[in-house]
Amino acid sequence: MRSNIISCLLGAALLLAACAPEFGNTTRVVGQFAGDAPETVRFTRGYYDGALGEDHFVSFFDTTVAVVNGRFEVEIPKCVTSMTDCQMGNDVVTFFSDGSTITIDPGTRTALSSDDKGLHSRYMDFANRWGDYQSRMAGFGNDEGAREAYRNEHFSALIDYTKEFARNNSDNFGGLQALEMLHFTGPDDPVEMLALVNGLSDEIKTDPMVSVMYKELLNNYSGRVNTIEGKPFVDFTVVQDPEHPETSTVKLSDYVGKGKYVLVDFWASWCGPCKAEMPYLINAYNTWRGDNFDMLSVAVADKVEDTVKTAKELGIVWNQIVNAQQIPGSAYGFNAIPLVILFGPDGTILKRDLRGGQIGEAVKEALGL
After folding, report:
1. pTM, full prediction
2. Which residues of 95-115 are buried (b: 16+ CB within 10 A; e: fewer)?
3. CATH of domain 12-114
4. Top-level CATH class of 237-366?
5. Which of 39, 182, 284, 346 has a CA between 20 and 30 Å from the CA of residue 8?
């Protein structure tokens, strides 16, 4: 689960201020077409704002350059808080305008910097390392043994490299991208990750193009740090039927912290991995429900009618909260489901991020069986 909607309303002052160049602080970009060439190439920086329409592009920089005898050349403002797109007909090459000379090869759709120590070169090394790792993993196909062996040998070092890259690039978009990569792929320690997120520069934190990414990471890891194992539960309130809030408003505390062990499953009807966990959840409920143990399902990012229909089909007969949308994700620091958490009788978080057989093992251990 992840929100990609950016709802910033930007005034003219922000548009002018974003990546405003210092005097003489520019990047030279050159390119040569080997064959048929378009009449122009276009350089842009911006983002698509879903709040204003799926195809609404908010532009911070936009310039078109003529192609003469297959060649183009331009100087553009330096900007390290976002990347620049070079649009050549149907092809796009993305690069950092880092103050070096960027040579674009339209044939291979690549960009090379004249400074092998500059931001663009460093970022390409970062991207290529991840690309190589993912390609090698994909190359093993269904050979899970080979995949696991390669992962065990290389993944930890790649994560350490990515953390170091984030630390060394806290003042540019590359560092933020590294934190995004860690968030979605790494076995992350929320305390360490929150420190890395907080270590980003003020320019990144406030830049109108990327501040939403920063805020999502900040909210996620703040929620994670506040809800690690051993912490008390964080309450939240959900209006399940906005037309009848007086009778449909519920809280997590209506179910958790009431003297029972409670297993809470955050899920959605459209989520395949969520459905895959249902046999383990059903088994836990049928085996241990009673005076000391209960369960709760909380539907996030889902339509109520779909939740109700799918819950019935899957055999969810225990307590449910519907229409929670993004509320639990902010409180517990997650943007991917399923998330299964076991709470103690007083609401203490005993285990989180349970999957498969871990679910039954955690419940059995908590009950002392």
Report:
1. 0.76
2. bbbbbbebbbebeeeebbbee
3. 2.60.40.3390
4. alpha beta
5. 182
